């Protein structure tokens, strides 16, 4: 990280630049006591670099993503803030820094689009939050759910089940917006997350294995003080292994957890995507058989797929 030189910069201006990842606007520089002539000289001698018209980096070296994000907010002016994937990245909901940095601005503002910034105008301007101004977490979650429907369960689980926000806060955002593409889908996914279903695989298991075959409903995401389990019945645990997190060191964690549960008198069955998606009836038979051995006096029912294959 480059060091901000103090030459000709007042202490307040240095502190402001540090706060903004080394980025300041011409307006801020003039307000801090510099003149256009001084700014021009600092740029010409290489002490400052011009990121965009009227926006400068006062640090040496490569401009970071966060510095570019700050530049976009300063270009947006006023109460502009990061939105969509950019806000999601700062919130920790998106793993990789997006190339395009979306900045939310008021509808009456007309800014020229320029890479890497995209200025999205809105009449529904939320109050920005955070040191790097961004949309509030519930609004960010809704925006990402709209943009990436396939990620809705994960996004809602990260934010809601992780207790970073509440279902009511997300619903409040949905209710406040006149138009939300896929509103019913988001509400349905939110309901599943509230029930403890934290992944799409868990949803498939609940729908195609449990409900379709009349099995008892297991408890979701139970934490026993040491381990968290996906689905828990009396004496039986069902772990649903997605595509990630169950290889390498993750496999050893799974084994240690299964062994600990076995020593505590609880059996573990494990299923993956192919099992629950392609062979849910076979999974249901195994779960039902094990539950019966453990004292369940119910009867597994046949789903439409069962009747097709087994008559």
Automatic annotation (TrEMBL):
It comes from the Bacteria. One of its GO terms (molecular function) is endonuclease activity. Keywords: Endonuclease, Hydrolase, Nuclease. This is Very-short-patch-repair endonuclease.
């Amino acid at each position: 990280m480059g060091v901000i030189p103090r030459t000709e910069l007042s202490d307040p201006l240095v502190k402001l630049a540090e706060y903004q990842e080394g980025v300041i606007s011409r307006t801020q520089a003039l307000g801090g006591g510099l003149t256009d002539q001084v700014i021009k000289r600092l740029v010409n001698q290489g002490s400052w670099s011009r990121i965009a018209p009227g926006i400068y980096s006062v640090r040496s070296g490569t401009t970071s993503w966060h510095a570019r994000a700050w530049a976009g907010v300063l270009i947006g002016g006023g109460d502009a803030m990061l939105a969509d994937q950019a806000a999601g990245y700062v919130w920790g909901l998106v793993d990789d820094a997006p190339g395009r940095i979306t900045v939310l601005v008021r509808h009456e503002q007309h800014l020229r689009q320029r890479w890497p910034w995209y200025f999205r105008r809105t009449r529904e301007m939320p109050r920005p939050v955070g040191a790097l101004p961004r949309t509030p977490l519930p609004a960010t979650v809704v925006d990402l759910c709209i943009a990436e429907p396939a990620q809705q369960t994960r996004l809602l689980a990260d934010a809601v089940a992780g207790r970073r926000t509440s279902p009511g806060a997300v619903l409040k955002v949905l209710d406040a917006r006149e138009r939300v593409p896929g509103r019913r889908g988001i509400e349905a996914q939110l309901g599943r997350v509230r029930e403890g279903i934290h992944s799409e695989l868990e949803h498939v298991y609940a729908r195609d294995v449990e409900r379709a075959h009349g099995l008892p409903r297991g408890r979701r995401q139970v934490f026993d003080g040491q381990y968290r389990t996906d689905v828990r019945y009396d004496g039986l645990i069902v772990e649903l292994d997605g595509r990630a997190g169950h290889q390498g060191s993750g496999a050893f964690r799974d084994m240690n957890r299964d062994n600990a549960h076995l020593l505590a008198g609880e059996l573990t069955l494990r299923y993956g995507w192919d099992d629950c998606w392609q062979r849910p009836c076979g999974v249901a038979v195994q779960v039902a058989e094990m539950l019966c051995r453990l004292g369940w006096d119910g009867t597994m029912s046949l789903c439409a797929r069962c009747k097709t294959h087994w008559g």
